[in-house]
Write a structure and sequence with these properties.
5-stranded antiparallel beta sheet; 436 residues; alpha+beta; 60% helix
């Protein structure tokens, strides 16, 4: 009887290991329904304590992960509830209880269950970070201002560091890869957003390129985990991150259009072919509006006070010849500290209007920073109408007519709404919410 005990325990451990290996691999491939089925197989159910104490919370974990990656918890009916928080909280609590059961069983049986105990503990560590990510996605989905990108970057950096150090179990390798990929790419995309808004061309370009490389790498890993199927999920976290990258790429292309246009021309290319790959061609939208509305000018004006030390400001003090390659030796002063990073239909901004334009921007910070309806002003002295809206805390869009226009001019209001909701990332963040 005594000689048989070690062999029976060994067989049970081996079966449990097979079940758990299959479960975690399927979960890493986002096949949560199949992962659940593995736990419900007759061979899995036949496992007794303490294994059942571990497999039980894994059933709830699979359901929680399915909701998390599908983003269904952001549906309108769930947005004000803590349903997913409670599910993850229950999983975390049950895993702690399972860990106690394993230690108690180990003490009585004399068997070595460190392999499973470390798996339970590290699974709990991953579960613990889910609440932070859920909170972040909920904040983005509800955003109607400028999100706390810097705070998100700090939290994501912390999560990545702690998971990199704390999760090293062989069965969690693929699950860990998914989490690391997600937080790393989001970290870089938020950093790219900040760089774009600060008009830092180099950092914006490098971080967007890095995130695209990571996205492609993640897609290959997913294909391998999904058994060779190349299809990514059609909805949820993964496809939304792809869309977020594409959205930022479109915005960066617009803000740095003169730089990119100059380089494309030197290389014998055109911006038309370059822009055809964008999800939103802001330059084409703005040009079309200028033609249809007959407006005098549309400009996007940068507040230099938001810029980093690596920002290269456009030079409009001389006839337009592109953008400077080197930093100004000193910060610009006066009107020159409010350059137009984009001006249409003519590339040279109407500097004769700049005293009025900058005075109105500086005189109405509360209105503009609250992202209300566009600020409207008609100046009888110069017979010109101005519409303003803030698209970034650092960038204000102005539409100028050299005639009187009504405050509620439909064409202008619709154009500014489309441009602002997209450039503020409100449109892409709204796509986090699954359609009913």
């Amino acid at each position: 009887m005594t000689s048989q005990t070690p062999r029976n325990i060994s067989n049970e451990e081996e079966l449990a290991k097979q079940v758990l290996t299959r479960f975690y691999n399927l979960s890493a491939g986002f096949q949560f329904s199949k992962a659940t089925d593995v736990l419900k197989l007759k061979t899995s159910v036949s496992l007794g304590p303490p294994w059942t104490n571990f497999l039980s919370p894994l059933l709830l974990l699979a359901a929680s992960e399915n909701i998390y990656y599908s983003l269904t918890y952001l549906e309108f009916r769930w947005i004000r509830k803590d349903h997913l928080f409670n599910m993850y909280g229950q999983v975390f609590s049950d895993l702690n209880e399972a860990l106690k059961k394993f230690k108690a069983h180990e003490a009585v049986s004399g068997s070595n269950l460190v392999f499973f105990e470390s798996l339970i503990w590290q699974t709990g560590l991953l579960v613990g970070f889910r609440s932070e990510l859920v909170s972040m996605y909920r904040a983005l989905a509800a955003s109607r201002g400028s999100p706390a990108y810097l705070e998100f970057i700090k939290h994501l950096s912390t999560i990545k560091k702690q998971i990199s150090v704390g999760v090293n179990h062989t069965l969690l390798e693929n699950v860990k890869t998914n989490v690391i990929m997600e937080v790393s790419i989001l970290h870089d995309l938020f950093r790219a957003q900040i760089s774009i808004s600060q008009y830092n061309f180099l950092d914006a370009t490098l971080t967007l390129y890095k995130s695209k490389t990571e996205l492609d790498k993640w897609a290959k890993i997913y294909t391998q985990l999904a058994g060779g199927e190349s299809r990514l999920p059609k909805t949820g976290v993964v496809p939304w991150i792809h869309k977020f990258h594409a959205s930022l790429h479109s915005k960066m292309t617009f803000y740095f259009y003169p730089i990119l246009n100059k380089n494309e021309t030197k290389l014998g290319g055109t911006m038309k072919s370059f822009s055809s790959k964008l999800t939103v061609d802001y330059h084409a939208l703005a040009l079309d509006f200028c033609q249809r509305s007959g407006c005098f000018n549309v400009s996007f004006i940068l507040d230099q006070s938001y810029c980093s030390e690596n920002t290269q400001l456009p030079n409009h003090t001389t006839p337009f010849v592109g953008y400077e390659c080197n930093l100004d030796p000193q910060p610009r002063m006066g009107l020159a500290s409010w350059p137009a990073i984009m001006s249409l239909p003519q590339p040279q901004p109407p500097l004769e209007h700049w005293p009025n334009v900058i005075s109105l921007i500086m005189g109405n910070p509360d209105h503009l920073s609250k992202y209300k309806e566009p600020l409207y002003c008609y100046d009888e002295l110069v017979t010109s109408t101005y519409f303003f809206t803030m698209v970034e805390p650092s960038i204000t869009m102005v539409v100028i007519y050299q005639k009187k226009k009504a405050k509620n001019d439909q064409l202008t209001q619709e154009f500014m709404y489309i441009m602002s909701t997209n450039l503020r990332n409100w449109k892409i963040f709204s796509l986090l919410k699954p359609k009913p």
